[in-house]
């Protein structure tokens, strides 16, 4: 009996040490590590490029604390905050998307769709255009908007339990409502304020400082381990509530913790960089495809998010010479192309 | 036997038929009320008897000028756009057999927006009547693309179609944003068009889109019977003598005509195409011919009502009608989704 239990398919390995045991999926692990490496490489490239190109060696020296004052200024004050925000926001969005898609059992169940990013945008726009605040207040507004929207969507979708598809529908309804509010707020604003708001709405990492780094870093450091810890239960939850209960999963608690953490991750990301489209939607399935598993792990998805966003930021800086276009434009374009490709590719399959 | 004939037991069929006719009469009455209010109410409210008098006998007074130059074109525009969007939503839902299909959600609105942005930013087009052709081309291209992506295949599911709409919306949205960030003066024009409004459209716009509207409406109403056949599924429809491919092509043409014309004239208006068929289906059941007939009446009634509401709520300023429809339509959508099971199509 024990022999058959221990004889697992070759694609996973179990590490046991006393009461502690972890199941490892080598391919997912490799994919995750490779993605993180890609993200870091892109980050390094982003540190070297810009109005004043700095060679890789100088950048590394600066990072090690042995650089000249000039490169230190460029690296620490101008580029590093932006690069870190990009990496961390990518991580947060990827993880949040993976949790959402698996909780809602729907590829559309990403924060973009259940209305969270639109809600965050409304919160931020209200602060910017009606209250007239800036900086941290805008971030606070975004977080408030995101959380309030999440609660409203959840309550609307709640009817003897939350049905995943209804959740997505409610999200579409609520976000259309907020979208109208947003475009009205922009319509009635002064032109300059409206442009600033529009740039924020697209999602950008231009000119981000250490404040934003701290916001999103705290979010990621606190919540990603939590999400990974509870993420063990996602596979069981995907089999249905009864199944999960039978296997000893604390269903309601896991779901509540996961949902709350995913909402907060997306809120933190949006507060730092604005509503960046499509990373949360595209990163998890892309990671799943690479690791050839039916559902993506949270960490590969997070790595994919970071890699995508860093690459996107590089493209945003270099796509149009002399123009630093918001990274949200790039991610939306890439995400859209990816989805289109997916639809063509899977035309014969039954998967939506 | 005679007793049975003189007092027939109300069969479910007959009851439903009666309900349809009564509902239709009510809808028409509501539409007339909306038309009257739309002409009478505004920053300067004119009482109905005066409206009636100056409508037929323009006397050069201020009231006459307001009615003829401002309110009347605006009301006619609302009538046309409302009917177009209501019908377009109905046809889209019938073709895709997707209760969530809607010009806004499927990306057709944004297709039109993109073309308009390109027109504003690169070709220097500045008038609403100049936008028409671009909006039209944009809507046509996008609806064709969305249908090709999401409407075919072996298992076209509602999610898949919405996904197709969303992916196209994303690509187009990125293009729009990129252009607007680079061209700030275009942004200023665009934000006024994008909100969906009737306020600065003139009668030239109406005459320009009118042929397309009429063609689209006629085509749609003619298609009603075929749409019924299509709702049984492709195989059953074929065995009944219908030709699904042709119906789809014609339906797509109708949607393009209607959405392109409506969006060009009024800017993107969300949720009307979703709410109208839903409401119609609640009253009449699943017969597409009746749903279409209701959509022609309910669409303008709803849109004009929303427009009037937008003028009243924040008077003397004005809420753009697109905002009002979203605020009215979204809660309705949410309520409907909560109440019914989604497999209603």
Brief overview:
Chain B: It is a multi-pass membrane protein. The complex is a heterodimer of chains A (352) and B (345). Chain A is mainly alpha-helical and 352 residues long.
How would you sum up this structure, described in words?
The complex is a heterodimer of chains A (352) and B (345). Chain A has a two-stranded antiparallel ribbon. Chain A has helices spanning 2-6, 26-48, 56-63, 69-104, 116-131, 136-157, 164-188, 191-202, 210-231, 234-238, 241-246, 251-273, 279-290, 298-318, 327-345; strands at residues 13-17, 20-24. The relative contact order of chain A is 0.16. The longest helix of chain A has 36 residues, at 69-104. The model of chain A is unreliable at 1-10 and 348-352 (pLDDT under 50). In chain A, strand 1 and strand 2 (20-24) form a beta hairpin. Chain A has a single domain (25-76, 86-345), classed as ABC transporter involved in vitamin B12 uptake, BtuC. Chain A is mostly helical and 352 residues long. Chain A has 15 helices and 2 strands. In chain A, helix 5 packs across helix 6 (136-157) and helix 9 (210-231) runs antiparallel to helix 12 (251-273). Chain B is mainly α. Chain B has a single domain (81-340), classed as ABC transporter involved in vitamin B12 uptake, BtuC (Orthogonal Bundle). In chain B, 77% of the residues lie in helices and 0% in strands. Chain B is built from 14 helices and no strands. In chain B, helix 2 (12-40) packs antiparallel against helix 4, helix 4 packs parallel to helix 9 (203-230) and helix 5 (108-122) packs antiparallel against helix 8 (184-194). Chain B is globular, with a radius of gyration of 21 Å. The two termini of chain B are 40 Å apart. The interface between A and B is large, with 52 and 54 residues. Chain B: It comes from Paractinoplanes ovalisporus. Chain B: Belongs to the binding-protein-dependent transport system permease family. FecCD subfamily.
């Amino acid at each position: 009996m024990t022999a058959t239990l221990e004889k697992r398919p070759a694609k996973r390995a179990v590490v046991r040490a006393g009461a502690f045991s972890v199941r490892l999926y080598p391919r997912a692990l490799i994919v995750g590590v490779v993605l993180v490496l890609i993200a870091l490489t892109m980050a390094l490239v982003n540190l070297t490029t810009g109005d004043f190109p700095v060679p890789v060696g100088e950048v590394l020296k600066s990072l090690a604390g042995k650089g000249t004052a000039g490169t230190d200024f460029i690296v620490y004050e101008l580029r590093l905050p932006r690069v870190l925000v990009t990496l961390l926001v990518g991580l947060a969005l990827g993880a949040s998307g993976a949790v959402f898609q698996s909780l809602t059992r729907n590829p559309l169940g990403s924060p973009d769709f259940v209305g969270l990013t639109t809600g965050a945008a409304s919160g931020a726009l209200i602060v910017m255009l009606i209250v007239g605040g800036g900086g941290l207040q805008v971030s606070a507004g975004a977080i408030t908007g995101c959380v309030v929207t999440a609660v409203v969507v959840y309550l609307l979708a709640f009817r003897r339990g939350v049905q995943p598809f209804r959740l997505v529908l409610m999200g579409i309804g609520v976000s259309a409502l907020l979208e109208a509010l947003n475009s009205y707020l922009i319509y009635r604003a002064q032109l300059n304020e409206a442009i600033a708001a529009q740039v924020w709405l697209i999602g950008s990492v231009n000119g981000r400082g250490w404040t934003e780094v701290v916001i999103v870093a705290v979010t990621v450091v606190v919540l990603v381990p939590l999400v990974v810890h509870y993420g063990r239960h996602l596979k069981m939850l995907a089999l249905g509530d009864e199944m999960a209960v039978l296997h000893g999963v604390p269903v309601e608690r896991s779901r509540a913790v996961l949902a709350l953490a995913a909402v907060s991750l997306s809120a933190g990301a949006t507060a730092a960089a604005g509503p960046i489209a499509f990373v949360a939607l595209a990163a998890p399935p892309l990671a799943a495809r690479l690791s050839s598993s039916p559902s993506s792990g949270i960490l590969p998805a997070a790595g994919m998010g970071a890699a995508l966003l860093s690459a996107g930021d590089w493209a945003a800086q270099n796509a149009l010479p002399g123009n630093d276009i918001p990274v949200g434009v790039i991610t939306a374009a890439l995400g859209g192309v990816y989805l289109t490709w997916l639809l063509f590719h899977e035309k014969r399959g039954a998967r939506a | 036997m005679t007793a049975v004939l003189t007092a027939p037991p109300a069969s479910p069929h007959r009851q439903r038929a009666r309900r349809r006719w009564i509902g239709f009469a009510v809808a028409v009455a509501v539409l007339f009320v909306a038309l009257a209010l739309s002409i009478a109410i505004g920053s300067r409210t004119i009482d109905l008897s005066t409206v009636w008098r100056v409508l037929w006998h323009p006397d050069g007074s201020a009231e006459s000028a307001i009615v003829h130059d401002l309110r009347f074109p605006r009301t006619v525009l609302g009538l046309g756009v409302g009917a177009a969007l209501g019908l377009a939503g109905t046809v889209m839902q019938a073709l895709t057999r997707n209760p969530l299909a809607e010009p806004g959600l499927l990306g057709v609105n944004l297709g039109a927006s993109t073309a308009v942005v390109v027109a504003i930013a690169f070709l220097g087009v500045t008038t609403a009547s100049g936008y028409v052709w671009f909006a039209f081309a944009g809507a046509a291209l996008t609806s064709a693309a969305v249908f090709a992506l999401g409407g075919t295949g072996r298992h076209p599911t509602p999610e898949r179609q919405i996904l197709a709409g969303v992916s196209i919306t994303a690509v187009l949205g990125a293009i729009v944003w990129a252009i607007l960030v680079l061209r700030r003066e275009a942004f200023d024009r665009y934000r006024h068009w994008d909100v969906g409004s009737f306020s600065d459209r003139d009668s030239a716009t109406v005459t320009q889109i009118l042929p397309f509207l009429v063609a689209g409406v006629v085509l749609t109403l003619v298609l009603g019977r075929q749409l019924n056949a299509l709702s049984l599924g492709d195989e059953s429809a074929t065995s009944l003598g219908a030709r699904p491919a042709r119906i789809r092509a014609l339906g797509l043409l109708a949607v393009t005509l209607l959405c392109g014309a409506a969006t060009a004239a009024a800017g993107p208006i969300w949720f009307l195409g979703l709410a109208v068929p839903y409401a119609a289906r609640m009253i009449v059941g699943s017969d597409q011919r009746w749903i279409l007939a209701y959509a022609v009446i309910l669409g303008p009634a709803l849109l004009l009502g929303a427009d009037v509401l937008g003028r009243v709520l924040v008077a003397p300023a004005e809420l753009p009608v697109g905002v009002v429809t979203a605020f009215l339509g979204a809660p309705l959508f949410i309520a409907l989704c909560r109440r019914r099971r989604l497999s209603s199509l």
